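EI: anyone free to look at a 247-residue chain?
SC: sure, send it
EI:
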Amino acid sequence: MKINNNLYIVGGGDYGYNLSNTLDSNVYVIDTGEELWMVDSGFDGGDRVLQNMRNDGLDLDRVTKLFVTHYHADHAGALSYMRKSLDDQLQICISERAASAVRTGDEDVIGLTWAKSFGFYPSEFSWEPTEIDVDLTHNQTVVSGDFELTAIETDGHCNGHMNFLVTGEDSSYLFSGDHVFWGGKIILQNVADSSVQEYAKSMNRLLEYEFQALMPGHLNFSLENGRRHIQKAADQFNRIGLPPSLL
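SC: here you go
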């Protein structure tokens, strides 16, 4: 689904626009003019995501990079499928702190074992180890044409979570994964690598960056004044409270 001249949303499940399979996160595509960048892969709807891209007139041969916000399965479960489907040119990029778990397919580290134990993910789903091409560090930049992506460390939801700030052609987008959503909502979970203190620190860090659009991993996005959602969540943390939960 085309959003504007450079931005598409091509995947999303029940916590999104139902463009692909039920458990998929939002999957975005940025057309830099020179190549296509993807943000997140979704859970298991890779075939539908790629078909949506074709339906939108996007040439899959132009896809060069897939930036992953974090290693939870609804955002990264389809990485292996994308690797096999787009292998010749695709580079998968994720935080250096998350890369090892994806490379080894460690279901305990990524929280998949825990999530399957109470039925959030189907028990038969098996995480496939996937090679990572680029281990991203905080404030690392990637440039294509007039577009620049900056990787921002945003721990809190889980270790190795990143937001991606993309600027170009008078547009600026923050792809926030599961860090922050419309209305300043968050997802703080009862898991070992989820931290209130890190969440608060990361939320305030995002206010150091300027952007217009907030493009979260689920539900609605804001094309203008997206920072207001960050500010709302940060204000709650800074009052020694917690922002409202998405779940």
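EI: The two ends are 26 Å apart (CA to CA).
SC: 👍
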